[in-house]
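Box 3.1 A note on notation
Throughout this textbook, protein chains are presented in two layers. The first layer is the amino acid sequence; the second is a token string describing backbone geometry. Keep the layers aligned when reading.
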Amino acid sequence: MADTHTPDIIYTKVDEAPELASASLLPIIKRFAAAADITVGTKDISLAGRILAAFSDHLTEDQRQSDDLAELGELVKTASANVIKLPNISASVPQLVAAVKELQSQGYALPDYPETPATEAEKAIRATYDTLKGSAVNPVLREGNSDRRAAAAVKNYAQNNPHRMGKWDSASKTRVASMSGGDFFSNEVSTTLPAAATAKIVLETASGETVLKDAVSYPAGTVVDATYMSAAALGAFLADEIEKTKAEGTLFSLHMKATMMKVSDPIIFGHAVRAFLAPVFEAHGDKMKELGVNPNSGLGDLLERVKGDAEITAAIEACIAARPPMYMVDSDRGITNLHVPSDVIIDASMPALIRAGGKGWGPDGQESDANCVIPDNSYAPVYDESIKFFKEHGALNPATAGTVQNIGLMAQKAEEYGSHPTTFEVAEAGTVKMILDDGTVLNSLDVQAGDIWRSASARQAPIEDWVNLAIDRQRATGFRAIFWLDAARAHDAELIKYVTAILEAKGVADKFEIMAPREATRASLETITKGENTIAITGNVLRDYLTDLFPILELATSAKMLSIVKLMQGGGLFETGAGGSAPKHVQQLEAENHLRWDSLGEFCALGESLQFLADAKGNEKARVLGKAVDAATQGILDNNRSPSRKVGEPDNRDSHYWFARYWAEALAAQSDDAALAAEFAPVAKALAEGEAQIVSELAAAQGAPADTGGYYHADDAKLASVMRPSATLNAIIG
């Protein structure tokens, strides 16, 4: 009979550097948890795992994989959920294609990704692959709102050991450029539904009506938005900014979120590629189309497709030479900002540039000022105001800065991040309407061919939960609390109605402020510059952006954030930080067997998960383990046991040894549970006595290339061999 028991803690199997680290850390976690009768299981939500689950009918019996994401999606709707969720790939098309090719090379008979599906079979395959693109995981798991903040130990360490900050010059030419009209922000309309409804989305044109999406259901109280970005306005804006950038002598940089916004942002990215190479497309567009060029896939894919055509290649080189220099992802390898849609992710790229004093890397390998192009004006003011603030006041001082915590509305696919199924590139000029089942036209927007139309929504229950979570957090801290909502934006105006009603009903309206993102940015920067603290209460996209921006300024990284998702049905989801630099970490491991991924986020999430387990199930041993995890995390920080960036120096595996040792020592020293103290005293002793041998064995593994058997789908045995190279440590842990 199959074991249907749900483990006490689910630890997710993901991608890239976090998954490499798991091969080293998870055996330690399981060993310690077993001493408290805590079971730790895994669920595969990696890109490769999701591909295999989606195409199980193409595979042999022993290759088939269960749909772990769907199973987790059901679990997080229960009170018993306790999930430690590591960062996973939000796949762009190039990443998806690369993962499929790797799996095919490993013997999995997967169909190719159809770039231009023609037959019904190809369309069905493409539709299945499209469900895996972008943020396919987070909207399924986030059945609760977000509580993100720097753990006390992490913040204390950052203040006592301030990281290097770039110098800001008031004469810096770095700026943010956004559309002044014709974008999603300016065209948005929004309505709160008084009753449950089902809607269809139609495009009415001179030639008739096309149903874009049918049977979109909303419960009562849902805030429903519609908006569009004008392709003509976008094209004119991009062309103008390219010329301005050249005149200003700065780097041209585009900052998008083509991973999470998997329908709209790759299209916008494609417009930028086309604008940058406009003379080439004008002269050779037909030939490039024949070669399969799709600018949405990026400059890298374009160059690969035309490399056999000397005339087009020469035209591209001449065009790039005449354009402003581009912000580079990797100047040594010639990888530009426009090469791959998923290479430059705004919530990582903009904070890094701001931390560096407004500097980005150019094609000459030197740092330069940059024009940061963020076409839509919904959230660009946050970065624009940050840059203006630091030009005026100089860089933030991490040694004295306060902190910005975040309460984020993200449950049940709230707002833009849930808009993928209702985003369309308009095929023909006309009017897009959302029509309710009773015939009511909810909204109507006139569009032109090529415009990007989308609808997003936020449900009443998550909104109310979000506001109440903010009230709880403000009461617990006493910090300044700001709702980042713009009364001049249609969607935010609807949310403000909910917010003000709840705050007034609870008698706490005087404890909160409501500000548009630009004003809230300046207020928050002023607050933390004085060494004081504030809570940013935001929607879903700003949650994502701010919980990178402020941690990167305060802590040097967002990977060290404590990220708790209080699930609406009572369970807990504990996220472990951002994975934006994970690809570079994997490349370094493959080249020289050094992994600089910092698992501090995993340590923080584990401590919270154990404490949650103790509260939920009355397992006092879990509480003891959790307190000891916090002590071990503090030990890692106090003794500088985090990974180094350079080969030959301690890396991720060394930090796991020290974490295990500090954890065992804390358990051996505590007096709340004598049995645990007795069990871990010899473990702590063995880890201490074996230090020289363990450190030597870990160091000996570095230097040569490492083979894990695959980037997206590693071989378990090879991965274990690479990530657990110390026989002495393995013998102690088991």
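The mean pLDDT is 95. The first strand starts at residue 9 and ends at 13.
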